[in-house]
Amino acid sequence: MAQDTAGKTKSDGELHRMAKDLTIAICTYNGAQRIPDVLEALKQQRADRLAWEVLVVDNNSHDETPQVVQRYQAEWPLAAPLRYLHEPRQGKTFAIQRAFQEAGGDLVGFLDDDNIPSVDWVDAVCTFGHSHPRAGAYGGRILPQYEEPPPRGVQAIESAFAVVRRDHPHRYPLGGFLGRMFAPGAGLIIRKQAWDEAVPRTLRLNGPSGASSIGLHEDMEVQWYLHRAGWEIWHNPAMELQHKIPAQRFEEAYLMRFFRELALSRHHYRMLVTHPVLRPVMVAAYLLSDSAKLLRDMRRATPDNLGVRCRLHMRKCQVIGPFYHWVTGMLKYLRSGSTRTP
Q1: Quick one: pLDDT band at residue 44, thresholds 50, 70, 90?
Q2: pLDDT(295) > 70
Q3: % of the chain exceeding 70 in pLDDT
Q4: Are 172 and 136 contacting, i.e. CB atoms less than 8 angstroms apart?
Q5: How many helices (H) does the chain have, and how many strands (E)?
Q6: Burial label, 55 (beta-carbon count in 10 A; 0-12, 13-18, 19+)
Q7: How many angstroms separate the CA atoms of 277 and 67, rounded?
Q8: Which among 16, 100, 113, 337 is least surrounded, fewest beta carbons within 10 Å?
Q9: What is the value of pTM for the model shown?
Q10: Angle at 294 between CA 290 and CA 295, to 5 degrees
């Protein structure tokens, strides 16, 4: 069951039958302090001619997120309903799957709780989706909104914070390394038909879970399935949003942990998109490539440049990534075997 803006309870079946152009899903974890800015921006949308809705998918928060959303529901001024859903399974992928189960829109757009869409974002999403019927997924222009001036060298690692400055339409190719193979997860739009046709019920990458970022690249896994099924992946610069980046994101300890988890997650994604027969060969090829890039970056390293230090740390973690996952996988197997022993 779910609750609409008038406080009336409707069955999931009734909500599914209410066809809409767009469902906006805000997947959040402990976002009570951040989500009001997103909801305020959505209240300003110029999209009167469209049928759309907002879902807040609470990924098992332990703060005041439910109460914050309830207060907004009580005074929500739009015809577009605001709904709250609780997803107890920890992991962003579970929140995404829940959003698709509940969504009434032909398009499902995902905003993080630190994404502030421009006033015509909803209109731009639907306009592009209607004019590109083979677009299974597409993202937009994402500009950083830094709480404080960032330190030197941040431009070199902006893409890790889902910053996309490209100002012209672009169809994403398959390929690339740390460049954008696909659209970033922030502000990502997925066509519900494409999801239903191409994405398996169980994903291998669970996305960020609580405070951990191990499992990142869940958005790339989804887009990989869409691409493989023949759907197009696009960049639409008319969809512009601001990504709020707090000052603590640039603390050294946070960045080192973030880039470590980003690098370790990359091994999972690489193996996902590689045929099982070729995986041993590709592990060796990636290991050689990553080692060569690590040595190159070590020669160019400048200690006073934060971006260079982060990239160097990430390179090191990418090199150890296969060994890390082999060891953790073996330990998990041994532990599961010991629990089965009578």
Answers
A1: very high
A2: yes
A3: 87
A4: no
A5: 10, 11
A6: buried
A7: 51
A8: 337
A9: 0.83
A10: 120
